[in-house]
Amino acid sequence: MATINEFLKSVGYNIYMVSADARYFAFVQEENFAVNVICLFDERMCISSLEQIQGFNENLTEKLNYGRNKYIHILNIICGNNDYIITHSSVTGGEDWYIDTDRSELVVPPNAPEDFYGIKSGLASYIMQNGLIFEAVEAVSQEAGLNRDRIEKVPARDGVPVRRNVKGDKKVYIPWVTAVIILINVVAYIAQRVFALGNWEHQFYITNYILSMPAEWYRLLTYSIFHADMSHIANNMFSMYLVASLLEKKAGRPFVIAMYFITGIGAGIFSVWYHDLIGDLYYGLGASGIVFGLEGALMSYMLMSQNMRSKMTFMMAAGAFALMFLEPLEHVDTAGHVGGLVCGLLAGGIWCIVSSSRKNKRVSADKGSV
Question: The domain 174-359: what is its CATH number?
Answer without folding.
Answer: 1.20.1540.10
